[in-house]
Every structure is written in C-alpha cells, then in structure tokens.
Amino acid sequence: MASTDTGHAGSGDWLVGNPTGWQLASALWIGSVGLLILGLQPVLLGALYTEGHVSGDELALVATAEMIAIAIGSAVVAMLLSAHNMRWKSAVLLLLLALANVWTAYAASANMLIAARALAGLAEGGLVAIATELIARSRRAERIGGYFVTMQTLAQCALALLLALYVIPAAGSAGGFIVLAVVCVVSLAVAFTVPGDYADLPKEENLANVLTVPSMTALLSVFCYFMFFGAVWAFLEPLGAQYGIDGRTVGLIVSASLAVQVLGAMTATAFEARIDYRLAIAAIGVVALVSSLVLASSPGLTTFWVAALAMGFILLFIVPYQIRLAITADETRTAVLLVPAAQLFGLAIGPIAASLLIDGKDFRPVPEFAAASAVASVALLGLFVLVSRRRRAVA
C-alpha cells in the first residue's frame, strides 16, 4: 500500500500522508496529461479549422466546451469524490480521455467534435484533480504547484513542436489527436505508481469552507486574472492582423510564449518563498494591465512581441502565489482544490465576454476588456486583504 494511506498524520513536508518523490512525480504527470490540451489547442484546433472541419464560430464553441468541462471535472472530482483508489481512478480517466481523443480524430461533424471535446474535458479535469488533491496536502503547496506548472508546460512545448513539425503535416488534425490518445495509453504505466490512497484532509464541511468572503474573493481574483489572459490569447491572431502582423508571425509569438511560460513557472518555483504572495499578485496585475493597454494602442511589431511575451511570462509565474492566496483564505485547503476550476473558467469565459465587445473588425476592445479583468483581479485581492485583517482583528 502507498505511504499516503488514509489516516496518516503527516510527515516532514506533508500535512497528512507521506508520498515518495516518485509518487509525487507520478501524480503531477497524470495531472499534466490532463492539461496538455491548453498548450496544444492553437495547433490542433487551428488544424481543424484549416481542414474545414469547423467554422470560426464552431471552433470557439469546441474550445469553450472543453475548457468549461475541464473546470467542472476538476471541481467534481476534488469536491465530491473521495481520495481513495486513486490508481484505478487515474487509469479509468486516462482510458476515457484516450477514447475521447480517438472519437475527436474521427468525428464527422462540428456537433460531434463539441461532444467529443466536452467528454475529453471532463476526463482531463478529473486527471487535474489527481494532482491538485496531492498538492493540497503539502506544507509547501506553492512550490509543488510550481513544479506542476513547469512539468505540464515543458510537456506542452515538446508535444506542440512534435505535432506542428511532423505529425499534423503528415497526418492532419486526426493524427494529432491520435498522438494524444497514445500519450494517455502510455501514461497508464504511470497511473499505477501514484499513491493508492491520499490521506484525508479535514473536509467535513466542504462547501461551507468555500462559501466564505475570503475564499470567494480569492477564487474570484484567480478567475478574473485568467479571464484577462484567455481573452487576449484567443484573439491574438486577429488582433495582430489588425495591426499588420501576419498570421505566421503571430504563430511564432505563440510558440515563443510557451517557452517563456516555462521560464516564468521555473522562476516562480525558485523565488516563491522569498516574495509575499500579495505583493507578487499585485505586481503581476500591474504587468497584465500595462501589457493589455499596450496591445490596445496599435503597437508596432517589436512592442507587440514584448507585450505578448510579458503576458506569457506572468501567466504561470502567478500560479504558486494564487495557491498561497487560496490556502490563506481557507486553512482546511478546500478552496485550493478549486483553484484549477477558477483558472479554467476564466480561460473559457474571457474570450466569450470579450467577443461581445468586438465591433466589426475592430478587436481593440478585447485587450481593453483584458485590462479591466486585470484591475478586477487586483481589486479583489485588496478586498481579500481587508476582510482578512478585519477577521483577525475581531478574533
């Protein structure tokens, strides 16, 4: 039996349980498989569009359906299911995701694609919860969270390069989704090395721990931040075209951004203990605001590059600090289990909300909306700090 059996009191770096380094790495990999699509959507969905499988509007529906399904899947598995039999749950979810990817490869209509990616999203969300459930049990959840985003982004970079250079030119989008299915099947070997059971966190009150002002403001701050990023990223290509930047150059910017995201994640992992989470989130919010305003001001190519890469760097740099924010809001660590759901809902809702502001072929309202989302994220952090201080004063 794994060393994180239910009921174990914690040892060293763990609040409860005591997983080995290999068990931790295995759980983080399982979660990373669930989030591979975040870095591959531009490549895979772009291929679906180019091949004529979906229109522009249908493409947005496919992407949004999957994002929302990932958020729902991660929340349901984390909040409603026990943290036992994790190896079998990992295996079942990997097989379900593999089948959904094969279904996507052979889907004959846009509706079938939407259904297939929604199913994939539910499985992907469950896989994310396999990792976040274990991260929540660490005394250094911020650092483990940094390892998690670094691992997933490195995997996204490697796979995006493989698909873009070799698989899709030879086998099209179908070949890309088959490769994803193969990754899921190969990862079954890893599924049976995660801890069999995770030791229980104090979750008796579950939603009661989340439905408090500190927890809600923390999660809403996370949601607004990712809404900022989701809005701009979804419309980066048409925004660039409006400023005379061709699609191939924007594609190169997206690829470079993935590499910069890895750098941001690694930097945050190295420095998370040295920077106060409130200062980090506020400073990143300012960078997000400035980057958005720059993209709304008809920038030249060099300025566009700088703004886009700055956004890529801060995207994952902020994650360990958002984990600390959620832990501070709820010491039972129930709220931290919902951080991935808040992030993914933000990524899904951002493009939809921003699209309502687009006037014809003028996409400048998109980064303006993103700027407002960044301000809202920092404002909610300020509200969280005020409420927390008042509660401590009353106590």
What does this structure look like?
- The chain has 395 residues and is mainly α.
- It has 16 helices and no strands.
- Helix 1 packs antiparallel against helix 5, helix 2 packs antiparallel against helix 3 and helix 9 packs antiparallel against helix 16.
- The longest helix is centred in the middle third of the chain and has 46 residues.
- It is globular and about 55 Å long.
- The protein starts with 20 loop residues before the first helix and ends with a helix.
- The N terminus is likely disordered.
Top keywords for this entry?
disordered N terminus, MFS_Efflux_Transporters, single chain, transmembrane transporter activity, 395 residues, globular, 16 helices, mainly alpha
The number of distinct β-strands equals 0
Counted by DSSP, the helix tally is 16
Largest sheet: none
- Principal-axes geometry comes out as globular
The overall pLDDT average reads 86
Q: In percent, how much strand structure appears in the residues?
A: under 5%
The helix content, as a percent range, equals over 70%
Low-confidence stretches: 1-7
Task: Output the radius of gyration.
Answer: 20 Å
Broad structural category? mainly alpha
- What is the straight-line distance between the termini? 42 Å
Seen as an oligomer or otherwise, the chain set is single chain
Report the order of strands and helices: HHHHHHHHHHHHHHHH
